[in-house]
Hints:
Elements: E1 3-4, E2 19-22, E3 32-36, H1 42-51, E4 57-61, H2 62-67, E5 88-90, H3 100-111, E6 120-131, H4 140-149, E7 157-161, H5 173-183, E8 186-189, H6 190-207
Parallel strand pairs: 1-8, 2-8, 4-6
Antiparallel strand pairs: 2-3, 3-7, 4-7, 5-6
Helix pairs in contact: 1-3
Amino acid sequence: MTNDLFGSDTRSAPRGTPILVIDDRSASGEHLLVLPAEAVNIAAVAFLIRHGSGFLRTALTEDRCEELLLLPQWVHRQEVQNPYCVTVDAAEGITTGISAADRTATIQQLLDPCAGAADFHRPGHVVPIRIRQDDQNVNAETSVVDILANSEIGLGFAYDHLIDSDDGEVATILQANTFAARFDLPVLRLSALVRKAAGRSRVTSAQR
């Protein structure tokens, strides 16, 4: 049995524990291992590296990306901006940047409001993701991350795709549920988050 978070409230999750976000809206949904800001530590980041793709991302607001001078990896010809920013490493306190300890330091620095652009070297080993708040996120992954950003998790979290250890492919929904039960991870289901967001929207509209 999986440990679904009651009412999709992340505050009931054990502190410092990764959350498995299961996209149960379709059979081909993307399932993410997510670390809210307070859960970013070496053990948790190592868990994501071990069971994810190794392509660690950190979701940030547009304003935060502007503050840190995080430029897009490439520029679309269309008006919609690419959300993947140039990779970074923390400028101090790390070695090669690739270890769990080093990537933890970089993620924590990205999430530290006191850190500035000069506190990072480019390119590096962590991918900042610029999340827009105007419904113009450009792919399935950033759409999922946008839903999370508008939940109790809020913007400012690290994440990676859950990978099946047997074939190296992105995990299916069955594999994601099995994985959550095996490691006793708290689970958020996107269908619940979407329903909750829709409920808040209806309440806000009724109050106008």
